[in-house]
Amino acid sequence: MKKILCVLMVFMLLVPSAAIAEEEVPAEPTEIRNQNIFVPTKEGVQRATYEEALKIDALQKQPLTTLTTAYLLGDYKSGKILESYNIDEVKPMASMSKLVSVFVVFDEISRGALSRGDVVLIDREAAALGGSSYKLKENDTKTVGELLEASLIVSGNDAVTALAKHVAGSKEAFVSMMNDKCKELGLKNAYMVNPTGLTDYTVEDYNKMTLREMFILSRELISKHPEVLEITSKEKIEELDRDFIEYNTNPTLGITEGIDGLKTGYTGASGRCLIATGVKKGEEGKTLDTRLIGITTGSRNDWARYVAANKLMSEGFEKYKYIMIGNPEEAISKIEVEGASMPEVEVYEKSRGSALWNGKSEIKREFNIKPDLKAPLAVGDVVGSVKYIMDGEEVQSTDLIVKDRVTQKGIIYKIKEMYENIFLNIKKAA
After folding, report:
1. Which residue in 67, 229, 277, 415 is a FRET match for 346, CA 20 to 30 A apart?
2. CB 336 within 8 A of CB 344
3. pLDDT tens digits for 221-230?
4. What percent of the chain has pLDDT over 70?
5. Rounded CA gap, 355 and 315, in Å?
6. H or E element, residue 157
7. Alpha-carbon distances, residue 213 vs 57, 97, 185, 367 (angstroms)
8. Is 372 left (phi over 0), alpha (psi -120 to 50) or beta?
9. Strands (DSSP E) along 194-304, which ranges?
10. Cα angle for residues 22, 26, 30 (degrees, 5° grid)
11. 313 to 67, 124, 147, 253, 292: CA distances (angstroms)
12. Is 97 within 8 Å of 89 (Cβ atoms)?
């Protein structure tokens, strides 16, 4: 009996302490996102954690040549390359090569061979692909438009493969169309082996081209099919009916102001890559909208790519802008016109232009006035020209005109001038 009582007492003492111990086990620590910097996460753009902010701060102190193996910043409008490093070495494109794939698809839509509403049946090969995925299953059906969005926003290898086979009948035939597109664009170093950008280990090769060519590809795609930006600017794809939600893979979207595209990439051969583009809005009467395209390749990890791309684009937007040059509403100079009723005539620029300015270069004006100008002159008559020079290059030129009729001197003025000339000549002779 005593033994039973002892056991019961021990049990009563242990049970509450076990319950207390269980209650005091701390919960799993949650990330506190309270830093004054925004970062891409699996749940979209959020504030950084303290640890993330430290990583970013350390990476921001490194030059782009350390954060990448190659980079390029270019102006969309002129095609001018503004900043660059290692841009003529052939590089693996990884999923950035999906831009070639969607270019081909958009071309087919434009010529009427395809519609964004066309329904595509997903086959076993597409559904089985790994890497970035739209999580499609065999016998699923999706529209061409949905597959285009999935190819660009979440970089779905399954989506772009399904598109390729629907357009051309086979991957091989589609790859041939991709290579034809590259040739059409003059991309001499470009070579495509599949629609996805994944390394093909059966041939030990991958999709490739130089950064200079990636810039040309991006410009042409945006120019010919600007609707691509309507897709790449979307924050996410959300399909509640199949419990699918994935955010845009672009680490600059929603973080660097003005970004609306374009495409990420990653394989072991390429490292983390990105082709980014965006617009800095102009100030009325001072600057125009300026679209830049930035490309980074070979970053070691997602954070290095994030910092490199944001640095390249944000600093580019700060530095470069299209400024307005000239003002047809204000007289730019005064000239003398022989026989005119007034001693000097105001001249105006015929039109206004713009130039891409780097924030520091001096812009000089050079006037060229026509010789032997004589009155009368009609409103709008061209009397010369003006050109603007920046860094030794002409960036803008326009005619100079008169905006008021330039009349001849009357008879009184002519007689007065004749006598003045007579007396002047007598004085000189004396």
Report:
1. 415
2. yes
3. 999 999 999 9
4. 89
5. 19
6. helix 157-168
7. 32, 11, 9, 39
8. left
9. 208-209, 236-239, 244-247, 259-267, 271-280, 287-288, 290-299
10. 145
11. 14, 40, 28, 11, 8
12. no
Q: For residue 286, how many other CB atoms are within 10 A of its CB? A: 10
pLDDT by residue (tens digit) across 55-66?
999 999 999 999
> How far is residue 178's CA from residue 193's CA, in Å, rounded to a whole number?
9
Distance (Å, rounded) from C-alpha 177 to C-alpha 168?
A: 8
C-alpha distances out from residue 94 to 74, 107, 163, 203, 357, Å: 21, 22, 18, 15, 33
pLDDT of 422 reads 75
User: pLDDT tens across 390-421, in order?
Assistant: 999 999 999 999 999 999 987 556 666 566 66
- Predicted TM-score of the model (pTM): 0.87
Q: Cβ distance 215 to 266 under 8 Å? A: no
- Tokens 């009996």 belong to 1
Burial of 141 (0-12, 13-18, 19+ CB in 10 A): exposed
What per-residue confidence (pLDDT) applies to 421?
65
- Residues 292 and 277: beta-carbon distance below 8 Å: yes
Tokens 């095609």 locate to 79
- Is the pLDDT reported for residue 430 higher than 80? no
- Percent of the chain scoring above 90 in pLDDT: 87
192 three-state secondary structure: coil
What tokens were used for 241? 């009916």
- Min mean pLDDT across 9-23, 48-62, 94-108 is at 9-23
The pLDDT assigned to 426 comes to 74
